[in-house]
Design brief:
Structural class: mainly alpha
Shape: extended
Radius of gyration: 34 Å
Strand content: under 5%
Largest sheet: none
Oligomer: single chain
Number of strands: 0
Order of helices and strands: HHH
């Protein structure tokens, strides 16, 4: 491969500076100007008060995707299995550590 350009008349030639891959044309100042969110004066007070709490809880609870009965059984079995495995692991480490301590401390 050579760096020579074809000398055909009317061939498209790139003009200007090449842009690096992955670099945008947005300047830092224009980016910062877009990032600034102007708050309404009504949104300045913290929280929504005690009267709006319960309706917000109800609306959020409606958004929850509740598991089916079959999923709950599967999740429960997974948790119990995990508990049995971890309990067996901890008890075996405790037993082996106890044997080691007895071996070291006994005359």
């Amino acid at each position: 491969m050579t760096d020579q350009q074809p000398s055909q008349p009317g061939a498209a030639r790139p003009t200007g500076k090449r842009q690096m891959t992955g670099v945008g044309t947005t300047t830092a100042s224009s980016y910062e100007a877009k990032r600034v969110v102007k708050a309404d004066p009504e949104d300045e007070k913290p929280g929504g008060g005690a009267t709006s709490f319960l309706p917000e809880v109800v609306s959020e609870m409606r958004k929850v995707i509740w598991p089916t009965a079959r999923q709950m059984v599967v999740y429960t079995l997974v948790v119990f299995t995990f508990l049995i495995v971890v309990t067996a692991l901890v008890s075996s480490v405790d037993f082996v550590a106890g044997l080691g301590v007895e071996k070291i401390l006994s005359p």
